[in-house]
Design a protein that fits this description.
6-stranded antiparallel beta sheet, 6-stranded parallel beta sheet, binds flavin-adenine dinucleotide, alpha/beta, binds protoporphyrin IX containing FE, 12 strands
Length: about 525
């Protein structure tokens, strides 16, 4: 994704976060005041969403429909929208755009409260969506924050959405990888608008309700159309829409923490049908039933080998989880990651898993730029996966200078070192390799053999390997948020144009925040 646009979005998200700190309710529950706000079955008042005159019945109400008990916010007599129908909304009027812009700060102040409340209610009404949303992202608040930030960014850019389009693509790719479909926008729309009404109460006048209703659907349609394009392209390229059963054909331990899985489609094992071509750097999603949760979960994994038509390879870090004790709660259990642990422990050669077609806007395609331009691949830990795919995809071009730079704690957790030193460097004199160990183990981890530099990655120490003089050099970064922010700053301090820096982050909605 273009960095400038990422950061524009992030700036909006940061403002959102800062503003949302002043929120009075933080757990998504209604305050007594909010519970009272317009929630009685009064007669002769208007629905805050549709503007219709109400008589206290909830039947057909677009905001209360589907709730297990009468919902505090409903006041409609009749509604014209069912949650699974996509309304035919007109483009926003200038007045509605003004309303959305002027109410964005109010929405921002309560954004995370609204979206947390929204998820809780939506999952209660649609338990099947547990298979779709990440349990951990909900628990940790990542997903509500990401949604709130997206809605706020939309409101701030309502007059000209062009700067947001790359962000829309990033989100739309994530959605398609998880097989989000148009009908689900009806469910999300209903519950999101309901939550705005629940939390903001009488502040949501019919005019404001109308503007946001139209605003939501205009945004939703941008996503729905873009996602439809992505599904169509995937199918045209030999992929599929939704999930397909794959078999694990090989499982290889790459380090104490990272294991690779080679995946082949069940159907091609017999038919020999080849897999779709993907761009190096793209990811697939996998979906698996998690017995201890009692429902499915899906996660994205970068493809860690070049596109080869025969298999997908993913390389997964086992997330043990960290226990962070507090004063009030000194004995906190760690929460191991659901999917990564299940994959490591229970997915063996011969196991079956659901897999989505490859998607993603982070990739390297030299035909789009100068084919022999130098390439610098900078990763930390499991961030290597996406960059290894890029590296492997370029090995046929012996004219292209490539520098592969990575950091790990020590040799035990350093994956792919043997492959790169033992094969890639021997066969490709155009490739160089720099390894940082932040905590090498005395005696077993050897400087000059296992690693080159002791300590955290500092690009100043290897400035000569960054092809800084060549203005066509492209830089690809993948790793944890803090690492990416630091490397981004270092690269910018060398005078590198942001357009030549490309970033991928392995987390929901948590984009690097330099703004
Ligand atoms: C585009 C993309 C590409 C990716 N590529 C890769 C890849 O190549 N390899 C790879 O290994 N990963 C990759 N990831 C990350 C991957 O999708 C998963 O997020 C990762 O495997 C963790 O999933 P999980 O289910 O094991 O952990 P989750 O259950 O999702 O938990 C996430 C983290 O939160 C912690 N946690 C969960 N619940 C709690 C709680 N209640 N309290 C405190 N902490 C908690 C967990 O310990 C864990 O560290 C990628 C992500 C994206 C978005
Ligand atoms: C206009 C409506 C929507 C907006 C603005 C929106 C916004 C977002 C954003 C910002 C992210 C984080 C992307 C990232 O990781 O970089 C996200 C992820 C996600 N969205 Fe949406 N979304 C919308 C509609 C939907 C719908 C209709 C569904 C399906 C019911 C859905 C399901 C998901 C899921 C499952 C994720 C991945 C995170 C997780 O697993 O919890 N979204 N969305």
């Amino acid at each position: 994704m273009d960095l400038k646009n990422t950061l524009a979005f992030v700036a909006a998200a940061a403002t959102w976060k800062a503003m949302s700190k002043s929120t009075s309710t933080t757990n998504g529950e209604l305050t007594p005041q909010q519970q009272q706000n317009g929630h009685g079955e009064e007669k002769g008042i208007q629905c805050p969403v549709t503007g219709k005159t109400l008589n206290g019945s909830s039947s057909g109400c677009p905001v209360s429909n589907g709730f297990p008990k009468p919902d505090p916010g409903h006041r409609c007599e009749t509604g014209d929208i069912e949650e699974t129908k996509i309304p035919d909304v007109p483009p926003l009027t200038q007045k509605q755009r003004e309303i959305i812009k002027s109410t964005a700060p109010i929405l921002a102040e309560h954004g995370v409260t609204i979206t947390t409340h929204f998820y809780k209610n939506m999952i209660r009404a649609h338990p099947e969506l547990r298979d779709v949303f990440s349990e951990s992202s909900q628990k940790l608040g990542h997903q509500p924050r990401a949604l709130a930030a997206a809605v706020y960014a939309y409101a701030c850019n309502i007059d000209d959405l062009t700067p947001l389009l790359p962000v829309v693509d990033r989100i739309a790719y994530k959605h398609t990888s998880l097989h989000i479909v148009a009908e689900q926008y009806g469910i999300v729309g209903k519950h999101l608008i309901q939550s705005i009404v629940d939390i903001l109460g009488d502040a949501v006048t019919p005019e404001i309700g109308d503007a946001w209703f139209n605003g939501y659907w205009n945004l939703a349609k941008i996503f729905i159309n873009r996602e439809r394009e992505f599904y169509t392209t995937a199918v045209e390229n030999g992929g599929w829409e939704g999930w397909k059963q794959f078999k694990v054909t090989q499982k290889i331990k790459e380090s104490d923490e990272i294991t690779s899985f080679y995946l082949k489609p069940l159907e091609s094992i017999d038919s020999g049908k080849s897999l779709p071509k993907y761009h190096p750097g793209q990811y697939i999603a996998v979906s698996l039933y998690i017995p201890s949760l009692g429902y499915k979960q899906a996660r994205q994994y970068s493809l860690s080998d070049r596109s080869n038509g025969e298999y997908f390879r993913i390389s997964v870090k086992r997330e043990d989880g960290v226990a962070i004790p507090t004063k009030s709660n000194p004995v906190v259990p760690s929460h191991p990651g659901w999917m990564s642990n299940l994959l490591h422990e229970k997915l063996h050669e011969g196991s079956i898993i659901d897999v989505a077609s490859p998607y993603g806007d982070f990739f390297y395609e030299p035909s789009l730029i100068e084919p022999n331009a130098p390439l610098v691949l900078i990763s930390a830990g499991v961030g290597q996966t996406a960059l290894l795919s890029i590296l492997n995809s370029q090995l046929e071009n012996k004219e292209k200078p490539i520098n592969y730079i990575t950091v790990a704690r020590n040799k035990k957790v350093h994956a792919f070192g043997n492959y790169i030193r033992g094969k890639v460097l021997k066969e490709n004199p155009n490739v160089s390799y720099k390894v940082f160990y932040s905590s090498p183990e005395e005696g077993s981890d050897l400087s000059g053999k296992d690693y080159d530099v002791k300590g955290r990655m500092n690009l100043n120490q290897i400035k000569d390997n960054l092809y800084l003089d060549d203005k066509s050099t492209e830089y690809y970064l993948c790793g944890p948020e803090k690492f990416m922010v630091d490397k981004l700053e270092e690269l910018k301090s060398f005078g590198i144009d942001e357009k030549r820096i490309h970033i991928e982050l392995f987390a929901a909605g948590e984009l690097p925040q330099t703004a």
